[in-house]
Amino acid sequence: MSTDDYPVDMSVKPDVKAFFDPATNTISYVVKDPASSACAVVDSVMDIDYAAGRITYDHADEIIAYIEQNGLKLEWLIETHVHADHLSAAPYIQGKLGGQLGIGDKITVVQDTFGKVFNEGTEFQRDGSQFDRLFADGDTYKIGGMTGFAMYTPGHTPACMVHVIGAAAFVGDTLFMPDGGSARADFPGGDAGTLYDSIQKVLSLPDDMRLFMCHDYGPNGRDIKWETTVGDEKKHNIHVGGGKTREEFIKFRTERDAELDMPKLIIPSLQVNMRAGKLPPADETGKRFLKVPVNGL
Which UniProt keyword terms apply here (predicted)? Predict the structure, then answer.
């Protein structure tokens, strides 16, 4: 596929600063327009001590400090999907620095599914209105003079999107580093075949496209990494590289997912992230609670 087929100027090389959160193995990013002070934050993290029920913002404060110290203007907070392994700090950062909060428009499917799982009732809006922008496949947006576009990549969840910003793509959980493979596809609304198709969309980008991961777990004891290229993934990805077929991927992914435990933070993460990073509403005493659905996941 020619770069002319994409609605972004792939000669633009954004400045990318990564922030690794060791508690959740998540990588957040500040993505800056090289020609201005405008930037975006991708997949931020809110800290939680789940055993104590305590929320803090050390990771988000580090991102805020970086933006302020470098005189940047935050224009977008992007969520690649509704994360099941960490809580988003997007509204906290937005409250400090402004910007618009965006996610894929299939967030409504996730909200409907997990609104039922957590018995949220009619007061919980399932229309995505908690976010400022719902991206449809192929939608574009501006970070200063730089254009980003949203590529719909379901399979891990129904609302996953890869964001292509100039010569960089932020893949969420659609792909991991080549020696990490791919994300699971057994959450409600996930599908291994759909995930394979989405990965092929990502791999149709130019071979030199920089790819930035949302997670890395340092397989086989290697150092944590978060950047690779389309070409490297096509050649070396252990789940889809080297011409592996859709049928081979579905068989492997289905068998592998059956062996995996649920993420440790899935219960608080889903309740918070389907609300755009906001905590559930307070009760009449002003206290907030997270629910544990028994045998619900």
Answer: Metal-binding
